[in-house]
Design a protein that fits this description.
By secondary structure, the protein is α/β, with parallel strands linked by helices. It contains 9 helices and 18 strands.
Length: 361
């Protein structure tokens, strides 16, 4: 059996903390459940992990912060694993206050390198008589009482809106704690949109892989509304629960025609699109990790119609060009600035390739 992650391993060292009905918020390794010696609620905001949790007998699984099916004040112990984004800790602690009964035990576990020391103030603000009870595997464990239980918890209350403008096309984008580039348009996404303004996709059915809060779909929809061509569909794939919620809100507000698929990569996705766009992930936690995007590149051709275009932006130092060439077809660099490159390739087997335009930027 593979080793647990440090934070989950430390929970297993402290099983005596788990009393009564237990809720675990932010599970990153489903294997931890079999060590707990109890059952309860397991929440993950990662679509792939959530799917595994949902198959564990005896446990109720929850995808992110959608608490509609969950009972308030129903748990005696609520464990909060420190999220990657500090802003998300307040959201997670608020969910913990909602799930825990008055006086329930709140437990916070996080790695030092992920900033547990910085999260302690937030924990102390909601947990009575908080104290550090363990320090091991580069992690700390904090315990306190649920002194401010909440009767209401609505994830939608955490959604905020940002107006984004690029190449003369504007749209409104939803954001939530932990969602990529909340409150601003990412520089890589901006460069991608600039190429889409200058060299539009010749497609009416588009897939946005790793769509985040749905900014690309909303922008494409707004750009298309300025043209005479109608009938655009932009579907999205996204792993993170808050981003899925935001993308649905963004699409709803803008009237984008398209569906958001909660999914870890393209696994389980069926169908082909005329074009795929992406600003794909390159982080896993705090580390650079290109494996998700490499897997996406290995699988994307089967979701592209022959001759269909892949348009992707990435940090220029990331080694995607040869993989795109191998999996899709000849690669062009449509734009490049100090940090990012926008690539395009047409899937082999289609009718002709569009002429190369002069790079932007
Ligand atoms: C660089 S961000 C781009 C977000 C959005 N397209 C934008 O331009 O603002 C990458 C996104 O990939 C998502 N992601 C990470 N791993 C994923 C996976 N395995 N499958 C699907 N999406 C993933 C992240 O949650 C994040 O929202």
């Amino acid at each position: 059996m593979s080793a647990l992650t440090n934070t989950h391993d430390v929970l297993v060292r402290n099983l005596d903390l788990l009393q009564g009905r237990v809720a675990l918020l932010g599970v990153s390794d489903p294997a931890v459940l079999s060590h707990c010696g109890t059952t309860g609620l397991a929440m993950s905001e990662h679509a792939g992990i959530f799917e595994v949790l949902a198959r564990v007998p005896g446990w109720q699984a929850c995808y992110g912060y959608d608490a509609h099916q969950l009972e308030s004040a129903a748990y005696d112990t609520v464990v909060v694993f420190l999220p990657k984004a500090r802003a998300e800790l307040t959201l997670r602690l608020t969910m913990a206050r909602y799930l825990g009964r008055a006086g329930a035990r709140l437990v916070m576990i996080g790695e030092k390198k992920e900033g547990i020391a910085g999260g302690v103030k937030q924990f102390q603000a909601v947990a009575q008589d908080s104290a550090k009870v363990d320090s091991a595997r580069h992690c700390q464990v904090w315990v306190g009482g649920n002194q401010q239980p909440l009767a209401e918890f609505e994830a939608a209350d955490w959604v905020g809106w940002t107006d984004v403008d690029c190449a003369g096309v504007g749209c409104s984008v939803a954001g939530m704690p932990g969602v990529f580039s909340e409150g601003s348009l990412d520089d890589g996404t901006r460069l991608l949109l600039q190429t889409l303004a200058e060299i539009p996709l010749k497609a009416d059915r588009i897939l946005d892989f790793a769509c985040g809060a749905g900014v690309i779909g909303a922008w494409l929809h707004a750009a298309r509304a300025q043209s005479t061509r109608a009938g655009l569909v932009v579907d999205g794939v996204e792993v993170q629960a808050q981003a899925v919620m935001c993308a649905e809100a963004t699409y709803g507000k803008a009237g984008v025609n398209g569906r958001i698929y909660p999914s870890d990569g393209l696994a389980g996705l069926e169908g082909r699109w005329q074009a795929v766009v992406s600003n794909p992930p390159f982080h896993s936690g705090v580390k650079t990790d290109t494996s998700m995007t490499e897997q996406f590149l290995r699988e994307v051709a089967q979701h592209l119609e022959p001759g269909g275009e892949l348009r992707l932006v990435a940090n220029s130092f990331l080694p995607y060009e040869s993989e795109i060439q191998r999996q899709i077809g000849a690669v062009e660099k449509l734009a490049q600035d100090r940090r990012f490159t926008v690539y395009r390739a047409f899937r082999r087997g289609g009718a002709g390739v569009l002429p190369i335009k002069k790079p932007l930027g």
